[in-house]
């Protein structure tokens, strides 16, 4: 059995396991988070040892066996842990939610994870949770362990497996509508989400933020470097290798000037996804920035989930009929849309990047050397038309739709001329 087959078998087995939740009352949150439950559950085995995973799990106040709710698994990104506000946001929206730490960390204080800058975490099993049959779950190894023949020692193996096990936890709860469990992840969590949805077909929807497939197609950035290594990373963990198996609707959400991923990789991922599900949407946000809290603030994520599992308004779809510089798009807005505007975002230079001071970031971050240029387009009914400026070398179209007083962004794919 090769390593890809080992992954397939292990993740299929994980779908059939419902871990027991073990309470950790000493870390019971207080204040606005007092109803959220801190727990640990058994994760994937590492070699011949078991692992333990910390998580926060919360439910809307009205959730019960007689009033079931949809649910979502929340996967944090680099430098993050299980976030209390993230769980609460989704609970307030009417979803059960579980946020686990996917890097082997446990809290060291009450309300750990109440902000993105919280430092009350420590790697490894606390003394009182150590047992002979258990070991620490792996920390983020930056995908350097792919050269190891034992897949169970790889961090990504555990991160994906934990997400699958978390889906099982939610599906098994009597308060959850088992067919309405989704998955979202931010940055590294977006990559984990993009991989997981290629293995777990029980998901009702998925929302990878920032990081998706086609990392090697990025013109720059850390993910390109990681997936270009000659150590088996691309072979084992490229999400696009399994996009043909992704049938659930997906929202591909990103920032147009992200310093880790790119509009190219998100556009390519969306094009694969929409082949299998026309309800897929691409949302390229301008001035979104890259952080957990920045991605929480965009309204598209929850609206997309609502559209799939709660009968909410659909984000505007875009049929790309563009030929050359003449833009001709057909939109599929929700019947509740109150207004639509369209803007072309374009670049006048070949994409180049360097480390310099841009926005509010430190100068060691790598960014596009050009700022995005914009020009308005014409919207008449469900048609968008206009011309890409003559000096543009590449572009995408941003569609803003007003629904219920909130403006939502969907996008056409990034196109090079």
Can you offer a commentary on this structure?
The protein has nine helices and 22 strands. The protein has 417 residues and is α+β, with helices and mostly antiparallel strands. It folds into two domains: 3-312, Alpha/Beta hydrolase fold, catalytic domain (Rossmann fold, 3-Layer(aba) Sandwich), CATH 3.40.50; 314-417, Immunoglobulin-like. The strands form six sheets. The chain has a seven-stranded mixed β-sheet, sandwiched between helices. Strands 14, 17, 20, 21 and 22 form a five-stranded antiparallel β-sheet that branches. Strands 12-13-19-18 form a four-stranded antiparallel β-sheet, with no helix packed on it. It starts with a helix and ends with a strand. The model has no long low-confidence stretch (mean pLDDT 95).
The total number of structural domains is: 2
> What is the fourth-level CATH superfamily of the largest domain?
Alpha/Beta hydrolase fold, catalytic domain
- The radius of gyration computed from the alpha-carbon positions, rounded to a whole number of angstroms, is 21 Å
Task: Give the tally of β-strands.
Answer: 22
Query: Which structural category fits the helices and strands?
Result: alpha+beta
- Overall CATH architecture of the largest domain: 3-Layer(aba) Sandwich
Report the sheet-strand fraction: 25-35%
Overall, the morphology is globular
Distance between the termini: 45 Å
CATH class descriptor of the largest domain = Alpha Beta
- Sheet of most strands: 7 strands, mixed
Mean pLDDT: 95
Low-pLDDT residue intervals, each spanning 5 or more residues: none
Number of helices: 9
- Into which percent range does the helicity of residues fall? 10-25%
């Amino acid at each position: 059995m090769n390593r890809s087959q080992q992954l397939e078998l292990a993740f299929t087995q994980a779908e059939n396991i419902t871990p027991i939740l073990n309470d950790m009352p000493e870390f019971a949150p207080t204040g606005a988070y007092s109803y959220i439950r801190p727990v640990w559950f058994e994760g994937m085995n590492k070699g011949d040892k078991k692992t333990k995973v910390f998580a926060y799990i919360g439910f809307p106040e009205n959730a019960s066996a007689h009033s079931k709710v949809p649910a979502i698994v929340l996967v944090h990104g680099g430098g993050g842990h299980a976030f209390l506000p993230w769980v609460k946001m989704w609970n307030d929206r009417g979803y059960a939610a579980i946020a686990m730490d996917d890097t082997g960390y446990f809290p060291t204080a009450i309300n750990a994870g109440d902000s993105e800058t919280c430092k009350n975490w420590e790697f490894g099993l606390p003394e009182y949770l150590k047992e002979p049959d258990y070991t620490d779950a792996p920390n983020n190894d930056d995908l350097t362990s792919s050269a190891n023949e034992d897949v169970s020692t790889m961090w990504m193996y555990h991160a994906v497996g934990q997400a699958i096990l978390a889906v099982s936890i939610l599906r098994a709860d009597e308060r959850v509508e088992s067919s309405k469990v989704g998955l979202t992840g931010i940055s590294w969590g977006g990559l984990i989400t993009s991989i997981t949805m290629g293995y777990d077909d029980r998901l009702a929807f998925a929302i990878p933020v920032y990081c998706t497939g086609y990392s090697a197609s990025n013109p720059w950035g850390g993910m390109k470097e990681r997936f270009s290594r000659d150590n088996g990373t691309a072979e084992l963990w490229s999400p696009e290798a399994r996009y043909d198996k992704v049938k659930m609707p997906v929202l591909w959400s990103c920032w147009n000037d992200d310093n880790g991923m790119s509009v190219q990789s998100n556009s390519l991922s969306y094009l694969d996804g929409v082949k299998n599900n026309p309800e897929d949407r691409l949302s390229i946000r301008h001035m979104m920035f890259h952080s957990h809290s920045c991605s929480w603030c965009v309204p598209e994520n929850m609206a997309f989930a609502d559209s799939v599992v709660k009968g909410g308004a659909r984000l505007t779809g875009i049929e790309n009929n563009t030929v050359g510089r003449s833009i001709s798009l057909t939109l599929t807005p929700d019947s509740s849309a109150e207004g639509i505007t369209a803007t072309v975002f374009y670049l006048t230079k070949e994409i180049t990047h360097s480390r310099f001071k841009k926005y509010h970031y430190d100068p060691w971050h790598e960014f596009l050397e050009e700022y995005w240029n914009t020009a308005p387009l014409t919207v008449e009914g469900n048609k968008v038309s206009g011309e890409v400026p003559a000096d543009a070398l590449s572009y995408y179209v941003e569609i803003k739709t007003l629904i219920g007083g909130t403006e939502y962004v969907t996008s056409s794919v990034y196109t090079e001329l």
